[in-house]
Amino acid sequence: MKDKFYQYIQDLQDTITKKLEEVDGKVAFKEDIWKRPEGGGGRTRVIENGNVFEKGGVNISGVHGELPKSMQDYFGVKDANFFACGLSLVLHPKNPMVPTVHANWRYFEMYDQKGNIVDQWFGGGQDLTPYYLFEEDAIHFHSICKITCDKHDDTLYETYKKRCDEYFWNTHRNEARGIGGLFFDYCKATASRNMNDWYNFVKEIGDSFLNSYIPIVIKRNSLAYTSKHKDWQEIRRGRYVEFNLVHDKGTLFGLRTNGRIESILMSLPPHVQWRYDHHPEKGSEEEKLVQVLKEPKTWV
Amino acid sequence: MKDKFYQYIQDLQDTITKKLEEVDGKVAFKEDIWKRPEGGGGRTRVIENGNVFEKGGVNISGVHGELPKSMQDYFGVKDANFFACGLSLVLHPKNPMVPTVHANWRYFEMYDQKGNIVDQWFGGGQDLTPYYLFEEDAIHFHSICKITCDKHDDTLYETYKKRCDEYFWNTHRNEARGIGGLFFDYCKATASRNMNDWYNFVKEIGDSFLNSYIPIVIKRNSLAYTSKHKDWQEIRRGRYVEFNLVHDKGTLFGLRTNGRIESILMSLPPHVQWRYDHHPEKGSEEEKLVQVLKEPKTWV
């Protein structure tokens, strides 16, 4: 399973970066191959200062070895070995009318001292962070998520949409990071669903990504914007940074497993602002977004 | 003691903000008085878009009530009440030749259910974060710290300078946030030093702040800079954000005690950049700074 999934995310990285370069039309991804001293490594691909994408990364990694002490405590196990691989992407568009997107699909195996698999699961999800809210974009993104989930089980979308809203919650701001999508974790074999079923589910989700995001990029990138819109985008990006550095388990996992800092923190936006006690004007488009973030909506 | 120290920091806030407004010459501090639902409150003063200061805050707060659960676990106590007050300041200058400064001086009391003081201590410190390194500025800042400490005990500077270097260490970047200063905590009564001695020490440190920082501001603010210098300042500010959101105990304390978010996060810089895998040019002034941050120096 680990080889099959690692092969899949390598191919998916190629598919996604090729399409994004085509959409951007100006710059190509810069590739860095890196090794983790304790085992494994990754292939980081970053795009910067494009026509469409101000900054973004589509990274894969496959790491293995002894489970670090902090992760042993987290999982409540002792002296275990692990393998983890996944694809992580974050895209920060230049035009504030185009939403930021994040996705991550991953697979985890844990071994005893004899090398037997003692636990294994899939996890991941994708979510959208708009700066200006176009309801039809939210509906489009969530529709693709729902259609893809429904092929496997018509209860999955509702469950994973709810978990996504719960996970990407900036507790100290009492608001969501964005308008959600899917979030799933610890997807393990059950009586009704074996690991291969989960593989097929995650693969179908990964394959649906470009359809969920690219039509929105193409539609909104042609809209005009002013420096006022850009300021708002940069202020909201500050909330994105706050979530990733204060709350995000993926970021913490990377730091705890001696991950490659530049690959982990490629998720941080290029230009960010913090203003003291900033509030959007009453009745403005900016305020409309914040209201939706305060109370997650049902989109489909 | 709590009334005496709270009065002191109120007066010190007035002294500092008055002087900073005089130095800035363009904008005044905006004041917000706030209340904490569980007890206490604060007086936040923020400056933005000044001639000299792009953003900064000089805040005082005095909070009390039941010790929040997370803090009980942290201190290893049960059902305690507390009082905490302090002054916190962060100044982000516009000119990249002028360093950012941070300071915090605070007093903490813990009570049993009958209201008896069961523990009390002072804490605090101040540290400098330059974007371009002028060794004479580092020496000036540290000299004022040392002279002030030496009046009380000539072992204090060395101890607190070392703690400052250890505390403001961005572990995930393996570099210091800045060039240090002083950091002290849990300053409690001992056979040779009672709480009043500690009060006098902290007061002297607080009183020395303007002398340690303002001469540097005046000297460096007249230097010319380009957009390249500004970019570097904004990239380094990214490391400041990383430290404050990932590692800083003061920020976490604020979030855990239901502090006022805007007062806590006023420490975040106004304009920040993150670039993928950015490294300064070999032999440049930017590289010279990074080398000093990798290995804290003895300045005096």
Which key phrases capture this entry?
homodimer, 300 residues, oxygen-dependent coproporphyrinogen oxidase, 7-stranded antiparallel β-sheet, 42% helix, globular
Give an overview in words:
The structure is a homodimer of 300-residue chains. Chain A has one domain (2-294): 3-Layer(aba) Sandwich (oxygen-dependent coproporphyrinogen oxidase), CATH 3.40.1500. Chain A is of the alpha+beta class. The first copy, chain A, has nine helices and ten strands. Chain A is globular. The longest helix of chain A is centred in the C-terminal third of the chain and has 26 residues, at 195-220. In chain A, a hairpin with a 5-residue loop joins strand 5 and strand 6. The mean pLDDT of chain A is 95. In chain A, helix 1 (2-24) packs parallel to helix 5 (195-220) and helix 3 runs antiparallel to helix 5. At the A-B interface, helix 6 and strand 10 of A face helix 6 and strand 10 of B.
How would you sum up this structure in a few lines?
The structure is a homodimer of 300-residue chains. The first copy, chain A, has helices at 2-24, 69-75, 135-150, 156-167, 195-220, 227-247, 249-256, 261-264, 285-294; strands spanning 30-35, 40-48, 53-66, 81-93, 100-111, 117-129, 169-170, 175-176, 180-187, 271-273.
